[in-house]
Write a structure and sequence with these properties.
This protein has 520 residues and is α+β, with helices and mostly antiparallel strands. It is 43% helix and 12% strand. The protein has 14 helices and 19 strands. It has helices spanning 2-7, 36-59, 66-125, 200-207, 274-277, 284-300, 316-324, 389-407, 415-436, 441-449, 459-462, 469-484, 488-504, 506-516; strands at residues 23-25, 28-30, 164-166, 169-171, 191-193, 196-198, 229-230, 237-238, 263-265, 271-273, 280-281, 311-314, 338-341, 346-352, 355-357, 361-363, 366-371, 380-384, 387-388. The strands form nine sheets. The chain has a three-stranded mixed beta sheet with strand order 12-18-13. A hairpin with a 2-residue loop joins strand 5 and strand 6. Helix 2 (36-59) runs antiparallel to helix 3 (66-125). The chain is elongated and about 135 Å long.
């Protein structure tokens, strides 16, 4: 019975309490009536009687005749023999009853073992039988069997049939359901999240990250961990392999292009997503209204540029050639998008907006050479074509600050100071454009009243108006690029210059730079 006690461990009652000796008949317990105490009492009485007779004979010793003495001895022997015979009969009567009791014990122990084996087989194979009132087994009042199970899903008892044991509970097979699709989980394995069960496929669908480029589940690395790349601003997640497999990336917003998504391929190899293309400026004529807005932005800061400086939109090759022709040592970003020239040279500019042909490629681009004549310290401002309006404007604001510094006599500045203060002005212009919503009011009125620009009254050329949600987000991204730049000249220079400007104001900061060549 020891193994059965282990099976029901935890119950306050054991089957050994139900063991009995004797048998039940009609609810009356019959037990053997004779005992050793009754036998002992009977023998003691006969022995006392024999001793009394013996003492009586001793008192009469010498007064009895010999033949009487023999007769007395004979009677004593008969009495003792009678006592011995009765003792033997009593012992013989008790011995079979003790043998019967021992046999009854062995039979009961064998019956208990058979009952325990039957209960164990019932627990292993199936749930015990259910009775009409819903309980499992029909237990005595003091015993609640461990086989009584309640489903953790529906809180009903589990009767005949299959059941599941998991998550520290038991369930009807139909009650153990996926938290995502609400269908029963019949697989051998399942996943857990937030103490809820999931099909492995449902868990992967909901919690395993998908690549924003190929839409597949991001694979695990050799260590079994999910490894992916993520853009710090757009939070775009993609497989690391897409950085090596030629997946196109927009030259403006820097997002990876999803599979089967169209994008514009520029003639210099750059790729432009269709969202950035929506506000892109493609030729010099189209950029003139924006250039006027930048000039008026400076005028609003009491930093008007008096000289008429040509502004040209150029291809990447023309920009690189112009940069090589400069004698002054300028400090440029890894990919140059703008340039403030001081030397006389000939630059190829884009005369008319190219068309988009088959396969989203640029066709029919018309260019012309433009000869730069030195009339002042600045001969021209060049900007890379094919960029969104806000990015083009921030480049113009940056290069215009270079022009202003040269024209005002700020010479021999360190890269951190010159590039830093130029980035401060580009950041300020982006701020004004993002929060104005409809562009610079001063620039709008000036553009409509100016007669020097042939396209000043064309609102579509200036790309002004209410900003789309994406364009606002794009402006925030360009600001983020300036703020998070890690280079010493553009990044650290901006942070030092912006801190000084916020503390002392732009006018006092510029005066301090003119006198000391450093930020206050």
């Amino acid at each position: 019975m020891g193994w059965l006690t282990k099976i029901f461990k935890g119950s306050s009652h054991k089957f050994s309490e139900g063991r009995y000796h004797g048998r039940y008949e009609d609810g009356v317990r019959n037990e053997p009536h004779n005992s050793g105490d009754e036998l002992s009492a009977f023998g003691d009485e006969d022995i006392d009687y024999a001793i009394a007779l013996s003492l009586s004979e001793v008192d009469q010793k010498g007064k009895k005749p010999i033949d009487h003495e023999s007769e007395s001895e004979s009677e004593d022997d008969e009495q003792l023999a009678k006592v011995d015979q009765e003792d033997s009969e009593q012992l013989a009567k008790v011995q079979p009853e003790e043998d019967d009791e021992q046999l009854s014990k062995l039979q009961l122990e064998e019956e208990d073992e058979q009952l325990a084996k039957a209960l164990q087989e019932s627990l292993n194979v199936d749930s015990p039988p259910r009775y009409d009132h819903g309980n499992i087994f029909q237990p005595p009042p003091f015993f609640q069997p461990s086989g009584y199970r309640v489903c953790a899903g529906c809180n009903d008892p589990i009767g005949h049939g299959r059941y599941l044991s998991c998550m520290g509970a038991v369930w009807h097979p139909d009650c153990f359901r996926c938290h995502a699709c609400n269908k029963p989980i019949t697989d051998y394995e399942f996943s857990m999240s937030g103490n809820h069960p999931y099909h492995k496929s449902c868990y992967k669908e909901q919690h395993h990250p998908r690549c924003d480029v190929c839409s597949s589940f991001i694979p695990t690395n050799s260590a079994g961990l999910i490894e992916y790349r993520a853009h710090p601003f757009w939070m775009q997640k993609y497989c690391p392999s897409h950085e090596r497999d030629g997946t196109p990336r927009c030259c403006s917003c820097e997002r990876m292009e999803p599979r089967d998504t169209r994008y514009l391929l520029l003639d210099d190899g750059r790729k432009l997503c269709l969202e950035c293309l929506d506000s892109a400026i493609m030729d010099t004529h189209e950029c003139q209204p924006l250039y006027l807005e930048i000039q008026e932005f400076y005028e609003g800061l009491n930093m008007k540029v008096e000289q008429q400086i040509p502004m040209l939109l150029v291809e990447r090759q023309a920009l690189n050639e112009a940069m090589e022709g400069e004698k002054n040592g300028h400090h440029h970003m890894p990919e140059t998008r703008g340039l403030c020239l001081s030397e006389e040279q000939t630059v190829t500019t884009i005369l008319r907006r190219p068309r988009i042909g088959a396969g989203y490629r640029i066709i029919d681009m018309i260019t012309e050479p433009y000869r730069l004549i030195r009339k002042c310290e600045v001969t021209a401002i060049l900007v890379l074509y094919g960029l969104p309006r806000l990015l083009t404007g921030s480049i113009l604001a940056h290069e215009m600050m270079h022009a202003w510094l040269r024209l005002k006599g700020y010479t021999n500045l360190s890269p951190e100071v010159e590039e830093g203060i130029c980035q401060v002005l580009a950041h300020m212009w982006l701020d004004s454009e993002i929060y104005s919503g409809s562009g610079n009011d001063i620039a709008s009125s000036s553009s409509s009243s100016s007669s020097s620009s042939p396209s000043s009254s064309t609102s579509t050329s200036s790309k002004k108006g209410k900003r789309s949600d994406f364009e606002k987000k794009l402006g925030e991204f360009f600001k983020h690029q300036i703020e998070s730049d890690t280079s010493s000249a553009y990044g650290e220079g901006f942070r030092l210059g912006n801190q000084a400007m916020l503390k002392y104001g732009l006018k006092r900061t510029l005066e301090h730079i003119r006198l000391t060549g450093s930020f206050p």
